[in-house]
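Hi everyone, sorry if this is the wrong subforum. Our group has a chain we'd like a structural model of before ordering constructs, and none of us has done structure prediction before. Sequence below.
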Amino acid sequence: MLFMGMANAYVMRTNMSVAIVAMTNQTYVKQGHEDIFDDECPNTNYTDLPKEADGEFKWTSSQQGYVLSSFFYGYVITQIPFGILAKKYGAMKFLGWGMLLNSVFAFLVPLGAREGGIIGLSVIRFIQGLGEGPIVPCTHAMLAKWIPPNERSRMGAAVYAGAQFGTIVSMPLSGLLAEYGFDGGWPSIFYVFGIIGTVWSIAFLIFCYEDPNSHPTIDEKERKYINHSLWGTSDIKIPPVPWKSIMKSLPFYAILLAHMGHNYGYETLMTELPTYMNQVLRFSLKANGILSALPYLAMWLFSMFISFIADWMISSSRFTHTTTRKIINSIGQYGPGIALIAASYTGCDRVLTLAILTIGVGLNGGIYSGFKINHLDITPRFAGILMAITNCSANLAGLLAPIAAGNIIEGKPTIAQWQIVFFIAAFIYIGCGTFYNIFASGERQPWDNPENDDIVQSPSANGHQNSVPITNIVTESRH
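Answer:
Right subforum, don't worry. Here is the predicted structure as tokens:
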């Protein structure tokens, strides 16, 4: 269910980028604006694209940018608040209701565009982003409560690989719906995926449970096995968040920088390399649905393969959690970093560039068994909050990639300028991966050790204060 939830989330995130092409009047958009191409590859065969049908909205490129970015503003600002609320009230309901809000508002996208224009559509997409905010921190919080340490790599990769699966499904299917769908084509994208998301959200809220203790039919042996593997006892104990200890933790900053570096590099790979191939190599990756989905498919398959390797490394007792995370994460971050450097030297060979793109994004799948699941290693009780912090920061860093690239290549998209774009992203990938290798840890941190929980004051029946371990309070409240 979490895999399908992640897939739904990424479908909702990416379908607008396909739909907006069919929504807008391309003749109006291109009027007076000639595409800038580099002339260093004069012998490259230019791919003749079919003439795009003109849509119903006369929106400029900058106005389209506002629509596309509105979703992410809502998505980013709810990361940390929902991470904190999920820790206090439970992650499942925030995840289920958030995705239900996202899915229901998908039905309003056509109405918002046709009746409210740019502003109306942007508001709808912003609200969808708010609803999707809980998906990553709440998923992490639930994984922390359900997945034993020796299964984290493959289970975490299986869940987060839903992002690639959703993208693979969304791009070609959205294109088909835009071309052959009902109500003018593009609205059917939001109706169809809105129905799918709504069904998933309702099923998730009905059939899924917060943790093993709240599941009514789980086998008692399994409940005890999971809880003992995670917490050292049969009960989940969650004290107040040790903010000061987290802010002083180098393993936390290792995950934070690795996450930020990944998002910056990933956005460069997935948004800027296609632009490079279009402007310099005169080849449109977006024109071929299969080719555009190939890197995501490679990342999905490799992330699943490497996750089994990671769990085997841990289960065999030949590698510690720390060593395993560092080795697998190095593949996930050094691989695409090297690919970006190589891509800057491929010259006018578009086949080789596409191959490097696919390999680089594919190797990037190692991050799911690297830093992405590392939150659960160092602090299973606060993994959701840590993921909220790192994911929020990483998404902000990812937004910088197209801005930086746009400023570097503006008006002069030469191979030399593109090399600067690729080298910056590669340096960030490799630099953040190296920081992770130096300071990361796969061991549960002292500030998340139940034996070190602080003593808190709880009011007694007669109004006096009694000193009671916070773990006992949480345990008693559950019983």
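For your construct planning: The CA atoms of residues 238 and 381 lie 6 Å apart. The chain has 20 helices and two strands.
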